Amino acid sequence: MLKRLLVVLIFALYPIHIFMDFAGGYGWVDYIKFTIIACAFIISLLGQITLVKIALLFTLMCDYLLLFTNHRFFAVSLFCVVQLIYSYAFSTKKNRTAAYFYLMLAVLPFIYYFAFKGPLVCVFYAFILLSNLLKAIKIRKSRLIFAFSLFALCDLCVATYNLTNNGFFQPLIWVFYTPSQLLLSLSSAKEWQPDKI
Question: For the segment 45-60, what is each residue's pLDDT rounded down to a tens digit?
Fold first, then answer.
């Protein structure tokens, strides 16, 4: 019941924040966006996939940094961790060695951030995201393909906006991002792997 109510709330808020983004001038639209991601996180808590719960908790932290602070590149570093968690969820061998390997990878974006203040973090993030999209395509899970495709389109808009400063792409970011997070929060264990997650 609660999950259904949260999904309905997200569907209700989605067109509102899209309209506000395209219309401009609504300073509190970021609170609506954050509310949506918080709802997606709660939906994941009602599910059974621990890794998705952890990933959406980090996503919530990332979006707080992006929406309410100026720590953009640090947020991207955390988003790298999010994508690594999803990458581990796709892994067929979830043993201790694999966990240590992904944990070591998770340290890299923070090294890039503190050493180079940004650029390599974005490259690292893009690589992992595209890798996850290819993994979703490989296992032929339509919900995950759609989710990571939307995630990729969102980040393509982010990159295009930052490189061109064309305001048209800024509101498109959340057009793609919101449904991607909802789809991930609603994903089931069988959509990730045949074995338990």
Answer: 998 889 999 999 999 9
